[in-house]
Amino acid sequence: HTSTEELIQSFAETYDLVESSPRALVHSIVDLSGLSESLKPFDTIKAVRAAKSHERVGWNLAIMPTKSMPIELAIKMTSSIIKSRNRVFSTVDEARTFLQEMDPTVHWENMNYDVLAGK
Description:
Elements: H1 4-20, E1 26-31, H2 41-50, E2 57-63, H3 69-82, E3 85-89, H4 92-102, H5 113-116
Parallel strand pairs: 1-2, 2-3
């Protein structure tokens, strides 16, 4: 179970990663398959409002092999509040195909699949 503080910390780390990148847009693919429940809506809103939004954030793609309506609702809520582009996919391949269509400038040969696979 993720706490509000952990979510705030995750947003801060993401901001720092985007800030350190030389790319015009920075996309993320996040594996949420191990997440069993989302924060309460009030806690999600609190975390999102505490987060700094970066103008170079591109697509945020979530991998969820098993559908979870509460988690998907939290993602949609977050997207609405901070005006981010979020999508949920069942597999990494689906997310990759989508992102290749959305941003053909991504250098897939530089992607570290070990990180994505959680190795």
